[in-house]
Amino acid sequence: MEPIKRQRKESDSVYTIMLIPHKGHEPRSIHFRLSLLKKVGIVCGLLCLLGAGVLFQSSHILYKAHQDQQELLTYRSEKAVQEQKIGQLLQENEAIEKEMAELSKLEEAVRRELGEGAVQPSRSGIDRSQYLGQGGPQAAKVEAVDIYAAQNKVLQEKVKDRKATLNDLLGRLRELNQRKAALPTLWPTNGGTITSYFGGRSDPFGNRSYDWHPGVDIANDYGAPVYASASGTIEEAGWVSGYGRYVRIQHGYGYETAYGHMSKLAVQAGQSVSKGDVIGYVGSSGYSTGPHVHFEVLVNGQTTDPLELVR
Ligand SMILES: [Zn+2]
Known about the structure:
alpha+beta, two-stranded antiparallel ribbon, binds zinc ion
């Protein structure tokens, strides 16, 4: 045991640091053991590690806090932009609502022109009460985006309704126009002179004392164009005994017109014609005393006075 103890004592040597002042003061000396120096070194090292750890930790916390603050700022600015956008969209919705109200007025005006009554209630199957006319104190709790979404849904439904209504009106207008086009209202020649009216008359050839005239005779220049009095389909085009060169047009809605004594025909059976199309030319073919067109109007198969319709 003795040699080991001595060895430890020898390794734990004592060191002296001399401090020698320059101006006549006594020199000072500090004595210390090597083991103490080592202990101080370890303690300093530990303290340094601890300090570095604390520094790292606090800088990390600071960095995180800074990042959080940046994220918060970004979130706030994005939220502000979104709120502004939603505000704009809400205003736009309101503007569209006003336009829709204008459309409703226009629609009513069109209906009045069509001679229709009050606007029918919406045919939409969805329950719109959950969106329509809401508001009041409770609405304040609802997010702006929810209000926008609800308004938008109502608008979409309204647009759908309006589309259906306008399509319906368009259909009625087309039907009305078709009826109008089918009505024989066009004088079949340019001017001319009525030489014989509809109804009873004396026979133009003097063969019989009395004759029933089923149309009007319009004298005009030989070869003057003869026009379709209304739109329709050519039912018959050719030679008919008594009528000479003859055309009969089916207009639909119970209306037909017939044209006789023409010099030449311009249409064939089965062909579609529009009001005012040339169907033939004035002549004197068949039972006729001079160039004229014999013009008949039939309503549900019965001849009627053309002058009641033609203007
Ligand atoms: Zn006639």
